[in-house]
Amino acid sequence: MDFFETVENLPPLETKRLILRKVRPTDAEAIFFYASRPEVTANLTWRTHRSLEDTYLFIQGLQYGYAEGTAADWGIVSKEDGRFIGTIGMAHVSRLHGYGEVGYVLHPDYWGRGIVTEALRAVIDFAFTYGLNRVEAVHVVENPASGRVMEKAGMKYEGLLRKRYSIQGEYRDMKMYAILREDWKRAKTDQRGKQDNAGA
Predict the structure, then answer these.
(1) Is 55 exposed, middle or buried (0-12, 13-18, 19+ CB in 10 A)?
(2) Lower CB density within 10 Å: C or N end of the chain?
């Protein structure tokens, strides 16, 4: 089964601290809590939610994507307290070229805990397990913390994209990071080797 066939019935993903699952209408209030905060959306390509109606429209778009098999978007749920704390997903996925771009947003109460790195690693594993060749991500130049997240997930800096996206009505320079399937496989092999040596 390839990536696109799998997305038609998007599976949940599980990590040590997180459950990644489809976004539901019942998540609206939790999403609105952070999506309505300018400090959260300042560096994102979508505008700050002004009302719950904005949030429901966002969820409606995801629901349509799930039904059509085009949405690879997960809600991030903390195992510790059961809270819905963010979303992570892949956009601009190309069947022909085998790549996709990851984007994410997180509730500010959970910043600085390595949550996004953990979720990003799970999504990268999913993408390469089901046949993609390249996973990309970008961040605005003024948000280097996001770049550190990408590096911790195994992505490599590739260059500057000038005025790449309109962010809150202003064209902004973006830094591009990416990881290739061959990089991912090599890292997995190295990790298994270290584990084997530790247990020897």
Answers:
(1) buried
(2) C
β-strand partners of 102: 90
Contacts of 44 (CB under 8 A, 6+ apart): 103, 105, 167, 168
Between CA 99 and CA 26 the distance in angstroms is 31
Whether the Cβ atoms of residue 72 and residue 7 lie closer than 8 Å to each other: yes
* Pairing, β 134-140 against β 156-167: unpaired
Phi/psi at 88 (5° precision): -145, 140
The 10s digit of each residue's pLDDT in 5-55 is 888 889 999 999 999 999 999 999 999 999 999 999 999 999 999 999 999
* Weakest mean pLDDT among 62-66, 68-72, 160-164: 68-72
Which tokens in the block code for residue 178?
Answer: 């990416």
Token pair recorded at residue 77: 């749920």
What's the CA gap between 35 and 42, in Å, rounded?
10
| Burial of 166 from C-beta contacts in 10 A (0-12 / 13-18 / 19+) | exposed
